[in-house]
């Protein structure tokens, strides 16, 4: 297969020195050939209306002022977060802050030591509880795996039945009509009702 050689050359004058430069584009021996087609459905260029430069300048200044105003508004509200109604304190509560304020209570060192000791005991208790639960789950999983291995050695069919999903784990029952019969005398808004169901006799 031979590809047609397509070359384009263009010349343009660069600068005021009068130097000429040539540019050639060739697509010889390349599968991506350029194709030149006629311009279809071309719209004639609209003639530009000459406008008064003072009016153009005023429009540009108006646009610039509008953009600057929007920027100032955004900068003004930059530090404000979106209000959340659930987290806002009611006005009557804000007015009653002096009444609602409780005096600070002095806690003795003995109470602080007791609270820290209770916190440590609670964390140790919860850690031991978590360790016991994890060990219990591991023991149950290991016992299940051992039982399945022994069952598989005895009978492959029983093992296949044992590893199937038990549908009773999801106690969902649904009982109702399998289809809705047509309403007698109902006028359909989008056309006529035609019963096309097949009857097997």
Characterization of this structure:
The chain is mainly alpha-helical. 43% of the residues lie in helices and 8% in strands. The protein has five helices and two strands, in the order ββααααα. It has a two-stranded antiparallel ribbon with strand order 1-2. The longest helix has 46 residues, at 109-154. The chain is flat, with a radius of gyration of 43 Å.
Please outline the helices and strands.
Layout: E1 7-14, E2 19-26, H1 53-76, H2 91-95, H3 97-100, H4 109-154, H5 156-162
Antiparallel strand pairs: 1-2
Helix pairs in contact: 4-5
Descriptive key words:
mainly alpha; two-stranded antiparallel sheet
In short:
The protein is 43% helix and 8% strand. With 201 residues, it is mainly α. The longest helix has 46 residues, at 109-154.
Number of strands: 2
Q: What is the helix/strand order?
A: EEHHHHH
Strand order of the largest sheet: 1-2
- Give the helix proportion (percent range): 40-55%
Beta content comes to 5-15%
Structural class of the secondary elements?
Answer: mainly alpha
Radius of gyration, whole Å: 43 Å
Q: Unreliable segments (pLDDT under 50, ≥5 consecutive)? A: 1-27
Overall pLDDT level: 78
Largest sheet: number of strands, sense, barrel closure: 2 strands, antiparallel
Task: Give the overall shape, derived from the CA principal axes.
Answer: flat
Number of separate helices: 5
CA distance, first residue to last residue? 67 Å
């Amino acid at each position: 297969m031979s590809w047609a050689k397509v070359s384009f050359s263009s010349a343009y004058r660069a600068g005021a020195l009068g130097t000429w430069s040539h540019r050639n584009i060739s697509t010889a021996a390349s599968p991506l050939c350029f194709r030149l087609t006629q311009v279809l459905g071309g719209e004639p260029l609209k003639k530009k209306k000459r406008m008064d430069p003072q009016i153009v300048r005023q429009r540009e200044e108006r646009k610039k002022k509008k953009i600057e105003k929007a920027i100032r508004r955004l900068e003004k509200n930059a530090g404000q977060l979106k209000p959340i109604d659930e987290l806002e304190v009611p006005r009557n509560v804000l007015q009653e802050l002096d009444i609602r304020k409780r005096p600070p209570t002095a806690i003795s060192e003995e109470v602080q030591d007791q609270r820290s000791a209770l916190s440590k005991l609670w964390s140790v208790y919860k850690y031991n509880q978590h360790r016991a639960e994890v060990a219990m789950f591991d023991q149950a999983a290991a016992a299940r795996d051992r039982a399945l291995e022994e069952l598989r050695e005895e009978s492959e069919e029983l093992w296949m039945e044992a590893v199937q999903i038990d549908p009773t784990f999801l106690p969902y029952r649904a009982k109702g009509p399998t289809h809705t019969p047509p309403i007698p005398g109902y006028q359909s808004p989008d056309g006529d009702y035609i019963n096309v169901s097949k009857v097997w006799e």
